[in-house]
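User: I'm writing a short report section on ligand binding and want a predicted complex to refer to. Could you take this sequence and adenosine-5'-triphosphate and write out the structure as tokens? A short remark afterwards would be nice.
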Amino acid sequence: MLNVNQVSKIYEGKVAYRALTDISFTIEDGEFVGIMGPSGSGKTTLLNLIATIDDPTTGEILIDGRNITRLSKHELAQFRRRELGFVFQDFNLLHTLTVEENIVLPLTLDGKGVKEMKVRAQTIAEKLGITAIMNKRTYEISGGQAQRAAIARAMVHAPKLVLADEPTGNLDSKSAKDVMQMLEKINVEQRATMMLVTHDAVAASYCHRVIFIRDGKLYTEINRGDNRQTFFQKIIDTLSLLGGHGNDVPPVRV
Ligand SMILES: Nc1ncnc2c1ncn2[C@@H]1O[C@H](COP(=O)(O)OP(=O)(O)OP(=O)(O)O)[C@@H](O)[C@H]1O
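Assistant: Sure. The structure tokens for the complex follow:
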């Protein structure tokens, strides 16, 4: 379980900037949660705090009761390597490596044997439908395939928590839909808890729940229920109440 408890973040600088104020929420094991809000509302800041890339100014973040803001350097490295998976907007694949080499990277860092790495890479690649491109370099594959490879890399060590920052941001709508269906499938099959920051209402409609933030504060949250189309509409309605820039609300329908 992920517990964000009264978290605030102030960026110090010539002029201090308060990016988050008293944010509290809980994400249960196996939940798939979206974070939405206008540009500059603090979504990436929040994701970075949970990813242990940055520290909150006040408050605590607990994962299964363990305060991740107070880990030693060594514990932190282990936590990131074993328990977290990341998916980024720009895929973050290494171009000099093949798709397979990219996928096994987290295992390499954790000192796993070659045979185990091959088996695990193969299993996840089959789930994501990318076995045919395993030996290709990342510049030889499409954006949608690159994001699948990035998802495979994020999942290969079976992390408890997967964090995704705009995973569909650089994809056309068909590839975006594919990627969200993959994430949904992995969430169900591997029971991984997922948290996704997105501007894309279609992508968000695949989540179980969407938390909205505005000006660094919790604004509201809505639950999916059983109809994705209705949920999509509710997301659009909430975004328009939330304000922000016009380009935060995509013109396309599901
Ligand atoms: N390192 C930093 N130093 C100072 N201010 C920062 C820093 N990073 C972010 N901010 C500020 O904090 C606020 C929240 O930024 P953040 O990137 O979390 O927003 P966001 O909701 O992810 O925006 P977007 O949707 O545009 O990516 C913004 O006003 C931003 O300018």
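A remark for your report: Residues 108 and 229 are 41 Å apart (CA to CA). The chain has a mean pLDDT of 91.
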